[in-house]
Amino acid sequence: MNECKQCGTETKNNKFCSRSCAATFNNQGVRRHGSESKECLVCSSPTRSKYCSRACASADRKKDAKLIAASNAARQARYRAKHGYNRAYAPGANKEIIKKIYETCPEGYEVDHIIPLSRGGLHHEDNLQYLTIAENRRKGNRI
To answer: Of 35, 59, 64, 121, whose CA is between 20 and 30 Å from 98?
Structure first.
């Protein structure tokens, strides 16, 4: 009689007493088929793909509000540059002062053109003012 390599019981077989003992003995954490296991990009749990679940996949796709706002601002700047809005500077405009006006705009306010660019107004420091977001949207391109 032989002894089972897994459980140590006596068996007529050369190595194992049953298929269950053979499977347990052979499956000791050594991967023989398929791809290596990876970590989920969101929660770091083991998975075979990028994400362990649909919830982690959708959580990874969600964008931060500030990132979305920056993306929108960049898109608007490209549109303005493409359609010639940069040519609206007044001849005597100080671009550094205008830049500083935009940089120091208080939270909850927007820089508004008193005479809108679409109505012939120029990009000049004397033509800029701070308005709340709601007031600026209400004003639109009116003078």
So the answer is: 64
